[in-house]
Every structure is written in C-alpha cells, then in structure tokens.
Amino acid sequence: MAEHTDTAESAKNRTAYWLIAPGALWMTLFLAVPILMIVYVSFWTQTTFKIEPILTLASWKQFFASETYIGSLFTTIRLWLIVLAATFLLGYPTALFVGLFVKSKTISTVLLVICVIPFWTSFLIRVLAWRPMLGKEGAINIILQKLGLISSPIEALLFSEISVVIGMTQIYVVFMVGPIAFMLSRIDRNIIEAARDLGASFWRIFFKIILPLSLPGVIVGAIFVSVMVLGEFATAAALSGRKVNLLGNIIVTQVGSLKWALASVVGVILTVIMGLVIAGFLRVVDLKKEL
Amino acid sequence: MAETISNISLAGIVKRYGDVTALDGVSLVLDKNEYVSLLGPSGSGKTSLLRVIAGFERPDAGTVTVFGRDVTNLAPHKRGIGFVFQNFALFPHLSVYQNVAFGLVNADTPPPADEVRRRVTEMIRLVGLTGLEGRDIGQISGGQRQRVALARTLVTEPRLILLDEPLGALDANLRMRMRDELRNIRERLGVTFLHVTGSETEALAMGDRVVVLDRGAIAQFATPDTIMNSPANPNVARFLNRYNVLLGELRGDAFVTAYGDLAYGKRIESSDGAYGIRYDRIAVVGETAPSAGVEVPVTFVASEYLGSAVMYFFEAADGHILEVEHHLGKGRMPEYRSREKYKLQWKPEDAIVFG
User: Which of A198, A210, A215, A291 to probe the B interface (max B CBs under 10 A)?
Assistant: First the structure.
C-alpha cells in the first residue's frame, strides 16, 4: 500500500519535471549559457582584427580608465532615474483614474487598451515621430510661436537629453500604468468608504490606504520600466543626435566594430546594475505576499 | 437645545436611482441606547437606507437628524454615525491595533498620542481581542475580524452604529455566538445599533425593536413580540416566515377562501385581504377525524427535519402549500404518508385576518 502511494507520488513528481523541462532547457541554453559566455568573453584578449580566448583584464581596465565610458555609465543611471520618476509621476494619476475612479470595469478595460494603442505601430516609428514634433520647425515650436509664447524656437527640444527623456517616457509609461491600475482595481471600495466614515481626509486616505495597497503595482511597474530603460539604445540614437550615449549605445558601437570583449564588459556591467535594481525593488515589497 | 433631543430621526427620506424608487418616504425615530433590527427582503431598500443614513449617498428628499442636529448634507464622518460593513472592509495592510486606531490617528484633529493608546487598548479589551493587537488582518479568524470592524468604529464614539448584515459573512456557529456578543458590547457602551438583516430570526432575536422595510417604505416598527403576534400587513407576516398566509376575502365574520369560510380571532386593518395562521398553531389529523375549530382538507407533500422541530408541507385544494411546525419537545415525530389526505385544524382565536 505504502509502496503504491510512493509510486503515485513519484509519478506525479515526474510529470511536474516534464512540465518544467522545456522552459528550463530554453532558459539554460539561451539565457544562462550566453550570460556566462559574455562574462567569459569580457576577459578575452582583443586586438584590432581578432579576439582570442587568452584571459586578460585589458578590456575592463579600458572601460574604467575611459572618461567617455564612465560618463555614459552615469548618463545611463541619470536618465534611468529621470525616466523612472517621469513614468511614475505621469503614470500613477492615470492609473488612479483608470483603476479606481472609473467605476465600470468595461470602461476601465477600454481605457487600458487605449493606453496600449501606440504599441500597434512599430517602435522605430514611435520614436522617430517625435522628430517632427520636437524639431526646430516642429509642431510644438510652431504652436508656441503662433501663440506668441516664445519669439524664437526652442532648439533644446530635439537632439538633447530632454528629447530622449520625452521619448522614453512616452514609450514606457504604459508599463507603469498597467500594474498600478491592476493593483488599484483590486482595492475593495468598501475599504475606502470605511476610511472616509472614520474621518480620514482625501489625502490621508491616499497616503495611508491607497498608496500602500498599490505599492506592489508600483514596484512591478518600476521593474518593467527600469529593465527596459537601462538596456535602451534606440531612443537615444534616434532622438539625441548622438549627444546622449547610454551603455546600450556603447554596446552597439563596439559590436559594430567587432570589439566583442569591450561590448561584453559593458554587457556584464549592465546586467549587474539591473540585478541590483531589481533586488532593491523587491526588498521594498514582499511580492509573494501581495500577489 | 440641540442636546436635549437625544435620538436619531429620519423624516421623509426619498432615494431614487433613475426610474427606480429605492426609498419612498421613510420616516423613523431611533431612541438613544437601543438595538434596532432592520428587516426586509432583498430589494426592499435596506442597503440604500443605510447608505443614506451613513452619508455615502444623498437622499433626493428628506432629512437625517442626529441628536437634534441636521446632518443630511454633512460628510459621513461628521455625522457621529459609524458603519460596519458586511465584509468588514478592514485595512488589509494594517495590524489589528492600527485598524482600530485608524479613525483616531487620521481624524482632522487627532487626540494626543497617549489618549489614542488608552482608548484603542480599552476598545480592543472590550471586544475581547487583547493579545492580538500586533496580528495582521490575514492572520485572524472571521469572528475576530468582525470584532476589529466593530472596535474600529466604536473607538470614534459615534452615537449610532449602522451594521450592514454584520453576521452574513460568518458561519452558522459563529453567527449565534456573535449575536450575544454584539448585544453585550452594545449594552456596555450604551450606543444605538441599527442592524440590517435579511434573516427574520436574527431580526427578532437581536432587536429591542424591529423595523420591517417593504418596497422602500416602512411596513412596521415595533417590538419583536408585537411584530410576531400582530404583523401590520400580510407582507410582514410573510417576511416573518412563521405564518401561512392564505388569500381570500373578508366578509363579515368569516374569511372566504377556496377551502371555505375560515373563522378568526383577531382582525388587523389592512388594505390587502389575507388570513394568517402560525406554523406552530396547527394540528394535523386524519381525514375522518371529528371536526374541531377551523379545518382545511390537505394532501401531505414532504417534511423537513430541523433538529429541534420538523416542518411538514401540505398542499391545499388550490395547490397552495401550508406549512406545519411540530416541536419535537412536544413528543415524538409523527409520520405522514406521501400524497395521503389529512385535515389541518386550528383554533379560530389563533388566526389573524387582514382586511
């Protein structure tokens, strides 16, 4: 009898292993192995025309000795923080409206779908569309001039850090709105009425009830945005006029000139930063408990 | 002047949702320090009435007055009225202590910290939760959550507490215990409770007085005993779930029905004609038994065993089902054969007639 249940139990376990096997295999082959490979390659010896598996710290030294590379590390972190703050400041009120203030589930779903509509066009078009908007003779400058608010066009709008921030915020804000709106929509309306009945003002209810209960959504949204912004290169390339160099742009350039070792160094640094960022966010909130 | 009036009064409350009139001129005076149950079938406007009193919704007409002060246009928390939600609506991210303290700490002018601590600790003790202050809401049982919800409202010292089906979310055993618990807590604090329920047994057991709400209007407001023995109209009798309500017409001394003229003891003025006889005042006899009192020939359909009593269901000639309750304390459970003919008998003085 005992033996019988044992076999049934182990058969169940075997089935479970088969379920996880394809995913595990995929992740091993295409995630774990490549990451280890990148770490390994970052220590290879790079000469102008070839790369050899002879271990050296040369590429690492080259990265940390260069003002350009260190500069782009700080630019990446600065832009990430700015875009993260912008997506939060823009996304939270939107999510609050969609997830909490709209009472009908249908309308709130429709509104969320509308947020996703920009994604029906390709990434490149979404980014490039900002050029005729922000340019010296772009829509925004023309409107401001027609309104008489400015006498000469604002040149800083395009091919600057501002245009990169604007572009990235527009593209990634929806990843902030979604998770927050989801958490907000799960808040029991009675809880808010109870808080109101107990005498808490709107702002107190917001800071003591609504914000804490939606925090897991904020964290998930922040992780999405962070991972995507930290690895960004296309928006900076298209909207900064090569003035803003992110770590992602350096990888692109280095790979383009077949400098695999230095590209790997930057890749490892980016991966470590992302790991730290995600770990940091996960410490703020116990997602296991909340979801 | 205002403080000399120590009651809560509703006058001519009307609430409409589009074309639907949920409350149609409700007037009611609740005394200080009493337990009032509000009984009504679903859709009778119970929840609407509660939400209007609490201030979550504004009435289309009428006034709410608390201890002489018109609060109709005041925000919920300025009314001196507490609300206990059916699902308790506790703050899931706060501990038991923080939940109870919420209303004090977050008031427009919070009391000093040591007073908050004293009042919260005292309230937690009063509802019997001492020792659980640090627990998360997810770590306590349904009955304990109910107490937290109650304590959270009571600690702000309202004059009236509205309880929206407060026992609905609890299992049957706990519900019985919480009934006593609620009554005891209320008595100790001397605050008025308005307890909304769809259960007639709960309403009659808990209320010092019972309000019966029917289609947005008050059908009766009286002590449980009066409601039980003299329901104001046939609908009230139906909600009580203790009366067979037979339809027919009152003609002089008899009530004319499909089964003949039925004699009655008490007449209650009502626009609807009906004849009421309690489930537990009916005797079942064989088809050939001698006649006595009021009699209706019936066919036995089914029975239901309730533990302390048995309910028997009989079908009258017109298909109307009559229920008879037999208390097992009165003797062993009689057996009837399905589809067999019997006679139901009762004394005229036990029957009431509406008309």
Answer: A198
